Amino acid sequence: MNESIIDVILHPVRMRIIQNLINQQLTPQQLKEILPDIPQASLYRNIKKLVESEVIYIVDEIPNRGTVEKVYSIQDPNKSLIGSEELKQMSKDEHLSLFMKYMANLMGEYERYLNQDNFDLAADGVTFRQTSLFLSEEELTDFIKELREVYAKYTQYKPENGRRRRTVGTIMIPEPNKV
């Protein structure tokens, strides 16, 4: 029986591997150093499962004393952005995989924040919330346009003294169509 992409990703060891590959490329040896509590055989077995399921990718191969050391990333080196036409052609499992990677990325960012010796959620502006909006198609279009304008205004700021990088995630999920 084939595992679903969700089962592959939600395995605790695999989730830790994924979280450590977000925004970086690592070899199994580097992963072993970051995750010393995972036995080497288990680490390699779970890396293999993630590659076979196309959750992580081999992005480089480095010759090393007669062998080849593979470098892994969560990003597919053959794809940069997914266009609207590609999104339309994706299967349900592919959409779930993409969404799980997005969520894993957010979880990794939040975990790195919480791993600081000292943190203050209120002072640092940490927030996450969920709300439901009842919008017509026209109101939704206006809402998205205004959100894009706000994002555009603030994403043009460059790193400088006094500025701290902050991750902002947005998810919009409509209720299913009623028959």
UniProtKB/TrEMBL annotation:
Gene3D superfamilies: 6.10.140.2180, Winged helix-like DNA-binding domain superfamily/Winged helix DNA-binding domain (1.10.10.10). Signal peptide: none annotated. It comes from the Bacteria. The keyword Aminoacyl-tRNA synthetase does not apply. Keywords: DNA-binding. InterPro entries: ArsR-like_HTH (IPR011991), WH-like_DNA-bd_sf (IPR036388), WH_DNA-bd_sf (IPR036390). This is Transcriptional regulator. It comes from Neobacillus kokaensis. The lineage of its organism: Bacteria, Bacillati, Bacillota, Bacilli, Bacillales.
